[in-house]
Amino acid sequence: MAQQQTHIELNRTGDKMPLVGFGCWKIDDSDCEDTIYNAIKAGYRLIDGAAVYENEVGVGRGINKAIKEGIVKREDLFVVTKLWNTYHQKDHVRPAIDRSLKDMGLDYVDLYLIHFPVPTKYVDPAVKYPGGWIEEGKETISYERSPIHVCWAEMEKLVDAKVARNIGVSNFNVMALLDLFTYCRYKPATLQVELHPYLQQKRLVEWVQKQGVAVTAYSSFGPASYVTMSDEGKTAKPLLSHELVQDIASRTGKSPAQVLLRWSVQRNVAVIPKSMHQERMKTNLDIFGWTLDQKDVDAINKLEMGARFNDTVTYGLDLPLFD
């Protein structure tokens, strides 16, 4: 078999972003040091975090423990974090990344993303960090007049200041990207979106990749992460136990998780699975050196149902962001 691609080369820097990374969402800060350390030991080189996950101190401890023990050098890792909604305003972007870097004990990140195209009212970190969707004591989102073009110019300054090697966006649609392309000095390196067989976003993925922007999928296992968060997460058939996915897994001698991750990677879409179990960490990483047959890919493609689980409306927010 021809040598398989394990990285995506990013558009401006040529940095090689691993196609498989480790996601930090929903890991308690207290568990984070050991989890991230074990993930790096298992072979993960991309660590995908965010300020709003409230675990960057633990993430940083895990990274720095692995560096200190000589398992990796800092330049071997590809560290990702994200700008939260409350810090879109011009004067708050740099302090936001500075706080993330301080919490993680790092000098720079490899990729810094705007987490959502949603500018909300600034919350002083001394009051609450990093601030939620809704201000304390309010019932609806308090928006702030912080245009993306102003925010993006500040993101570009982070590249100039060498505190972020690459910058990108998350949860943006084609319209938001088109607008951004008209004024950016530095094109986004990546777009991170929800992506799994129930929500394949084929047209979005193909168009974005044609623009030279890499795509990263979150929630590759579909409803698994959302069972406690939305009715849709509870009622949708879990992808990991779906008969089709299980059948392909047993025929190929792989796990259902490996099948789902391989399906994405064959679209040249990066994945960031999370597991707290060391054995599963290793198998989730083992998705190269084999491929899914086209007939199996076609069968998985038929699972499309437009089911979005990370939806602001299902969280009770008056914001139909993806409509």
From TrEMBL:
It comes from the Eukaryota. Keywords: Oxidoreductase. The active site is at 53 (proton donor). SUPFAM superfamilies: NAD(P)-linked oxidoreductase (SSF51430). Substrate binds at residue 115. The keyword Oxidoreductase applies. Residues 23-303 form the NADP-dependent oxidoreductase domain. Belongs to the aldo/keto reductase family. This is NADP-dependent oxidoreductase domain-containing protein. It comes from Absidia glauca (Pin mould). The gene is ABSGL_04518.1 scaffold 5475.
